[in-house]
Amino acid sequence: MLNSIILLLTLRIMSYFTLFPESVLLTQATKIGLLIALTFTALLLLKSLRNKHSGFNFAYGSLSPLVLYGTYLLLGVLSVGWASLPYYSMLQLGMVIEALAFAWLFMQLLTYYNAVSDGHARFSHVFGRATLIIGLGFLAGWFLDPDTFSRMTHAGEVARLGGIIINPNELGMLAVLGSAMGYKELLDKGSKYHNMLLIIVSVAVLLLTQSRSSLSAFLLVSALFVLWLGNLRVITLSVVGVVLVLPFLFHSIILKQGDMEEVMSMTGRLPFWEDLLTDGFTKRPLFGYGFMCVAEGEYFESIHSYTAKMTHNTFIQVLLNLGLAGIFVCFLQMIATFFAIGNSSDAYHRRLAVMMLIPLFINSLTEFGIFGESNYGIQFYQLLILFFVVKTVPVTHTRPIHYGTTNTVLT
After folding, report:
1. DSSP string for 259-315
2. Which pTM value belongs to this model?
């Protein structure tokens, strides 16, 4: 069953890749078909597991983050009525709601399996194995099929891992999450061999993506791991290592081709965001253009930057598609999530959530993000929310106990 759970999550992550770049229609149909099939598979695995082991029931913990997330989706459903592209809003809503259904079933499956197997399927173990498989696949593709697995940028001078399959920044985020799983497993005395391999593969994938935002997330997650490890020698060696490596990273990844202007403008994002706020948001400030719509048409045409159909910032995306009402609900939802993490007595999931939030939040500042167009960042955030919602409790049986002539029922 554990291998089936790992394979399920691996395929779920892969379902967000562009598998048939030559045909948009075929890619979309494959994605939708695979997503639905995997959700149905999660349901079947859960039913099978509960039929074999009936000793536990589900209980539910911190519901406020989930309720507020549902409120955000409800506002999205209502926005179809005023959306500039109703069909696109409905498509995006359908994919995000389906992702939430999968997250719900997957967390129930994983939680129940842990209950009946004494915790042998920690999320960090399952997610780490899934990212290791995908990372090895991308590294193999980098050498065997560079035309597909690498993307040329900066006038063809810079090759970035991800190619036509996935945005390199999104792949970089996945690599950081993979390394975070390896760190968490090492903190919890998991297999040193497998988790060191996972971290090495994740770092290799990250460096090949040339993602600045993911690199910063990785350094923060690594610093957190070292601090939690609490070993003075490791802390000292880590500081020395960062000092020695940082100049190389700065020149090779951060300052690509010596273009400081590109860095300062965040690859043209700053003027783009300025135009979005001044020319787009002001036209529909209260309720926006509809779920995942950022303009009256399909694309927002920036005066001082590029033309795009998404904002490269998940919070500006919400501000454009659901207006002030939407951003208010999203901020409340995130605050509720932070409180759920901080108040949780579950030390394992509390630390894991913090390590996951770092790359998810940083990615949200520059890419699709946790409230953007359908992507696996949304899926990971949904799973994170459910860490603190889905619980299991043993089934209590009643039976009569006889004491002399009196029957007493103990529960």
Report:
1. -HHHHHTTTTHHHHHHHIIIIIGGGSTTT-SSTT--SSSSSEE-SSS-EESS-SSHH
2. 0.91
